[in-house]
Amino acid sequence: MPVKQPPFTTDKTYFAHDVRNWIAAHPSVPPWTTDQINNTIDTLWFADRQLQIRPQYRAHMQDAANNMNLANLIPGAMAIPQNPYTEGEKNHAKRYRTLPQPAAGVAAPAAPVAQIAPAMALGAITAVGVAPAAPPVASQAAPSAASGLAPSLYWYPFDFHPRLPWDDESDIPELPNFEGVRRPSEAPRECDEFLRSGILRHQEDDADWRGQKVLGFGNFGVAGLWVQLDAQNNVIEQIVAKDCNPWTREKWRDPVHWRDRLPREIANHRRIDRRRSQNSNREMAYRNLVEHRGYRLMMRKRRYRLYLKYYSGGHLEKALQPVFEDWVLGKGQEWDFDDPNCFDDLNQIPEELIWHVFQSLVRACLFLQYGTSDPAVTAPEPDWRPITHADITMGNIFIEPRDPSDDFDLSNVVLADYGESFFPLEIPPRNADEPLYPSDNPVDYVHECSSTRRPYEQHFAREDENGILIPINEKTDVWMIGAVIWRLLSYNTDDRGPVREDLEAEVEVVEVDENGQPTRQLKDVPIKVPISMGDSTDVLTEAAMLPSVSEFFPMAANWTAELKRLVRECLNYGPGDRLTLHQLNEDIEAHLASNPVLQEGPELLDTAGERMEGIE
User: Fold this and answer.
1) pTM score > 0.70 for this model?
2) Domain Protein kinase: where (predicted)?
3) Architecture of the CATH domain 316-333+342-427+440-498+537-611
């Protein structure tokens, strides 16, 4: 008789399958009888007042996006006892809703220490094979096994890693070595090697897929474009395969880099996928988050592969490169600020494009923080954990040229690369009179260096005036959004990040006197100082950033005052002085509503795809 497969009609059926699978994977001597297995299942299920496992299985059963899979919450939700329960112990649990007292030397199963998150649904896959859904786990380590077994700390794989068996990796070659190479065109052999490596799972047919080009590589690994061909060699599908080889052995076995038994980047994609599949209205924010198509996890090689939608417009840095190059070449000119046409011969960024990018990034981050971009929702959705992106740069913002057949008037701006994104781990509850428990945020996510393209709270773990560590959160993403928009306003090309313009330094200046003789004297001259260095922590004013007549950024006079104000309020040194995402979204929408001309389609994005042949 065939075994019935999920979805099941009762939550207990999911639980029973989980327990039976665990017992089968951990055989005892002598083996348990069918009655012993059934008594154990019933005893654990009836002891719901103590173990509190029913809500987790009920949530899984009701999760239409994922209930076609087993819940796989054992042993995460609880530990299975070393010895089976008896008929009498089952009756005790049924009557009192608690476990019977264990016999001497035999421990009862441990109650769960944390609520288990419902399983995440995998992103839609049409033609690409990907790894099966991995079971979710709580943020903390699962309870240790019952008495008689060594604590789970001494078991391998670690309890935050996927359970065995792991997928076969025999078809996966090592990644090509791009060390010392600046662009794909300089390494044709390595690129060809990667594109011939295949993209599907072991023994799955990928004969109709072709590696077309390498899109980029770096410390993260390498990404390439694959196309699917029909019988006439017409392209019917495109997909990006991003092979991530980001971690040392030490990081791979560090639980802070994992969520839901998956690398953080994959886990966050899957959480977004689940919200995407549940939302029938396809709210605007989904368009601003990179579309995940699946993943492959290679545990033995300490690698993973992401399958992502291909955005033919490339990234924002590359799309706007002609503008930045023009202004770099134009540096040193004597600008006539009284002439309104003095910049006409240079490439310029339309202000409506900047507002479009601004609004798109805010919507994307609203969704990451709250599970929706609905401005009426001011607290995270009940089943949502706030995600901080933590790495918003122009290189991580992609362009999807407008499709004339869709309902949208503008090209799409997409936030990608969740390699640094995270949601904090749970902290055990405490009494009000107890000291604060330590948190993983920010100590496990700071960079331990002063990179001025990032806000200061990402440099090192720092305390506020009350001695409390400053977390990395939505205010961090607000700062990074502001940094992107500041670059679009300043046409700045270096990697130092946003700067203040209201500070001076005493320098030696050589001047020629009336007799033609050089004289040396000390003078205070304006200087650019990165905001996140903290030389001044004052709130940014017009004089401090992008004044109408700027010593360093001549285009500052061309932008509207409201746009520059919002950028300043994103970039303040202290997180408490920055706008929230909701405030920022409200101000942007209000300004666009009163200036409808700014919502017209910016041509620079619409033509970006035509100018982009790839990330070279």
Assistant:
1) yes
2) 209-598
3) Orthogonal Bundle (1.10)
